[in-house]
Amino acid sequence: MPNRPTPQPGILDIAAYVPGKSGASGSKAIKLSANESPLGASPKAIEAFRQAAEHLEIYPEGSSRVLRTALGEVHGIDPDLIVASNGSGDLLHLIAQCYLGQGDEAVMNRYGFSLYPIVTTAAGARIVLVDETDFTADVDALLAAVSERTRIVWLANPNNPTGTYLSDAEVRRLHAGLRPDILLVIDSAYAEYVTAADYSVGQDLVDAAENVVMVRTFSKMGLAAARIGWMYAPEHVVDAVNRIRGPFNVNLPAQMAGAAAARDTEFTARLKAHNAQWREWLTGRLSGNRLRVVPSQANFVLVLFPSETEADAAFEALMAKGLIVRQIGVYGIPQGLRISIGTESAMRAVAEVLKDFQ
């Protein structure tokens, strides 16, 4: 018998999530490591947050009704089929807890979001990593990896940290190849930044199927500090997740700020336009004989260097100029740096430093 409490089997085998680096408190470093909004938050969201701060003594409404109503209006979906949460990562944990257990498997592409293995293993299941084609999820390979033990397929679309995406047709082909008892989780965290005409957030597929969930977040559109995520899912999935989520899992200021941000479509459009302009500019400026920029539909680019040594040298050169980007060896791409799309001045500064590596 152990002489102290011990975690469940597998918990201590989990590699903890590693966030992007930040500058020291009070430093003037420019953070381009966490895919945050370069334009701040919606002014309407900020004002709503301030007003909510006058009522910190009361519990928030438990179902995030105000937030769900706003999301329903903006996206044209039934608010009763939405679950709000303390960031989308919380929802991924809840989904895994509901649908995975000992002996089960969940499938994901090799360079998918690093939280998927964590939530899968924490639920007692096994993660199955599937090789990609040119840093893009391969539908045929994903389907080939499905076994009788598969219960979930995780798909970030666009993907983090590569920025690549699957078209609506390819996502539908993936879904069509899955058994009806397998849950397809479409993580559309970067949907607001996609400009590709053949992309779909997954909302229509949720409407048409009983085994598809769409997960979204406000973190990439200016409210990372507020921690607001949401899920659109069939009624039976909503019911299951609501049974185990915390009763007050989204705080009042976050609910109010999220509702205001959802309705501020003008700000969202401005953020998207800024990102598209500077994503294209940075991609063109960095692409060369020695550097490759993976085509991105997100609010970051993945820059591939000839070697891990050169990627590390570029990281240090950027750090020396106060530019913090993301090393992604944890994803199995040690020769890459992920660079968030920031302000014009930040993008020009990054290009200036990295010209010596081209």
TrEMBL record:
Residues 28-354 form the Aminotransferase class I/classII large domain. InterPro entries: Aminotransferase_I/II_large, HisP_aminotrans, HistidinolP_aminotransfase, PyrdxlP-dep_Trfase, PyrdxlP-dep_Trfase_major, PyrdxlP-dep_Trfase_small. SUPFAM superfamilies: PLP-dependent transferases (SSF53383). It holds the Pfam family Aminotran_1_2. Its EC number is 2.6.1.9. Pathway: Amino-acid biosynthesis; L-histidine biosynthesis; L-histidine from 5-phospho-alpha-D-ribose 1-diphosphate: step 7/9. GO terms for biological process: L-histidine biosynthetic process. The modification N6-(pyridoxal phosphate)lysine is found at residue 220. The keyword Phosphoprotein does not apply. Coiled coil: none annotated. Keywords: Amino-acid biosynthesis, Aminotransferase, Histidine biosynthesis, Pyridoxal phosphate, Transferase. It catalyses: L-histidinol phosphate + 2-oxoglutarate = 3-(imidazol-4-yl)-2-oxopropyl phosphate + L-glutamate. Gene3D superfamilies: Aspartate Aminotransferase, domain 1, Type I PLP-dependent aspartate aminotransferase-like (Major domain). One of its GO terms (molecular function) is pyridoxal phosphate binding. Its cofactor is pyridoxal 5'-phosphate. Homodimer. PANTHER family: HISTIDINOL-PHOSPHATE AMINOTRANSFERASE, HISTIDINOL-PHOSPHATE AMINOTRANSFERASE 2. Belongs to the class-II pyridoxal-phosphate-dependent aminotransferase family. Histidinol-phosphate aminotransferase subfamily. This is Histidinol-phosphate aminotransferase. It comes from Devosia geojensis.
